[in-house]
Amino acid sequence: MSMKDALKKAKIAAMKAKDKAKLNPINLTLADIQNLEIANGHGATDEEVLKKLEDIDVDRAGKAKERAQEKLAKGGLSDKEYKIVEAKLQRALVRLSVKG
Asked: What proportions of the chain, in percent to the nearest 5, are helix, strand and coil?
């Protein structure tokens, strides 16, 4: 079974369990794999997926997390700005959890 297939099975399990903490990172990882496949013009191999996961810059993700948390703590954001900052925070957390 490929990594992508394993992630799809994990996604289904997380959806059935209504476990958003697991579902969000899986969805973002599957989106990264799909972007990789589009860029390469073919289905991603397990080696390509691993390389993509290894390319995650932990320091950069940590700094993005801190910036997003600071903006949320500061407040005064419009609904649109709040959603953008919240999405950035979620992405940073996913990258950190995938790399960790």
From this structure: 85, 0, 15
Show the tokens assigned to 29. Answer: 């990882």
Q: pTM for the complete prediction?
A: 0.60
DSSP at 89: H
d(Cα 45, Cα 76) in Å, to the nearest integer? 44
CA distance 23 to 17: 10
What tens digit of pLDDT does each residue of 4-23 get? 888 899 999 989 999 877 78
What confidence tens digit (pLDDT) does each residue in 40-63 have? 899 888 888 888 777 778 888 899
Element (H, E) at 2: none
CB atoms within 10 A of CB 95: 23
CA distance readout (Å), 76 to 40, 81, 91:
41, 9, 22
71, 63 contact by CB (below 8 A): no
